[in-house]
Amino acid sequence: MKSDNRFEKAKEILSEPRNQKEEVQALQDTIYVIGGKWKLPIINSICNGNKRFREIERSIPGITTRMLSRELKEMEANQLIVRTVTPTTPVMVEYTSSDYCHSFGDIILEMIKWGKSHRERIKNS
Amino acid sequence: MKSDNRFEKAKEILSEPRNQKEEVQALQDTIYVIGGKWKLPIINSICNGNKRFREIERSIPGITTRMLSRELKEMEANQLIVRTVTPTTPVMVEYTSSDYCHSFGDIILEMIKWGKSHRERIKNS
DNA sequence: CATATTGGTATACTCTGTGATACTGGTTAC
DNA sequence: GTAACCAGTATCACAGAGTATACCAATATG
C-alpha cells in the first residue's frame, strides 16, 4: 500500500523533498529547550533588563520561587543564560542572556506577535 | 521600596517602555496553542501534504492514536486545521491546514532552524 | 529588637500530559 | 471467515510539570 495506487499523491509529496523526520526532531528539540510554561517569559524578562533573582520573579506574574529557580538552572545548563556571582558582602547574583539565547530572539518576537493577534482573533469571534 | 533608591535602574528600565505583562501573556498564549510534544509536528506533517488520519499518524514516529486524535481535535477547535468528512461509502476524513495555521509558518521554520543548529551545537561540545 | 530583602532550598501536594493497551464498527481483500 | 485497513474511543496508569507553603542564612533598615 505504499507506492501502489496514489500516483497523484506521491507526486505532490515528492515535489517537496523535505526530510520530515529530521524536521520533527528539530521541532521537538526546540520545544524541549524552550517549552513549558515559564522559560520564554523568563528569557523575555532577562532580555528586558531584569538581572536579579527577585527582580525577575516580580516581573513575571504568577511564577513561584521554586519554578524560577528550577528553570534558571536548566536554562543555565542549556547555555541560554549566564549566572554571575559577585562576591560582595551579601553576594550578588546576576542573570544575563547569552549570545546563544539571542539566537532565538526572532522566535520570541514572532511568538509575541502571534500571541497578540491570536488574542485579538479570539476576542472578535 | 518601589521607586525609592534605584534611580539608575529605573532609568534603564524606563528606557525600554515595553509592556512586559502583555508580552508574557502573548508568549504564554502562543505556547498554550502550539505547545506540547505533538502539535507542531502534526502541523508540519499536514503542511507537508499528509491529510488522512493514519497517514499523519505514520508520518510522525512515536505518536499514538490517542494523542493524535486529541491534538487534532484541539487544533481544530483553535481553527488551526480543518477537518473535512466526505461521506463516501467508508467515510473519508481529511485534515488540512487553515490559512490561520500558515500564519505561523515563520515560527515553525525558525524553530526547525534553531533545533537543527542546537543539535549541532550539542554534538560539538 | 523586629522586620524586610536577597537568593534560594525543602516538603508535600495536585493535576495534566503522555503512554500502553485494548476495543469498536464498517469495509474491502484473500 | 479471517485478516487488514480506516477513523477513531475507552480505560488505566504514571512521571513530571507545576503549585503552596514554609523555611534558611546573611545583611540592611527602622
From TrEMBL, chains A, B:
<dbReference type="InterPro" id="IPR036390">
    <property type="entry name" value="WH_DNA-bd_sf"/>
</dbReference>
<dbReference type="InterPro" id="IPR036388">
    <property type="entry name" value="WH-like_DNA-bd_sf"/>
</dbReference>
<dbReference type="InterPro" id="IPR002577">
    <property type="entry name" value="HTH_HxlR"/>
</dbReference>
<feature type="domain" description="HTH hxlR-type">
    <location>
        <begin position="24"/>
        <end position="123"/>
    </location>
</feature>
<protein>
    <submittedName>
        <fullName>Helix-turn-helix transcriptional regulator</fullName>
    </submittedName>
</protein>
<keyword id="KW-0804">Transcription</keyword>
<keyword id="KW-0805">Transcription regulation</keyword>
<dbReference type="Pfam" id="PF01638">
    <property type="entry name" value="HxlR"/>
</dbReference>
<keyword id="KW-0238">DNA-binding</keyword>
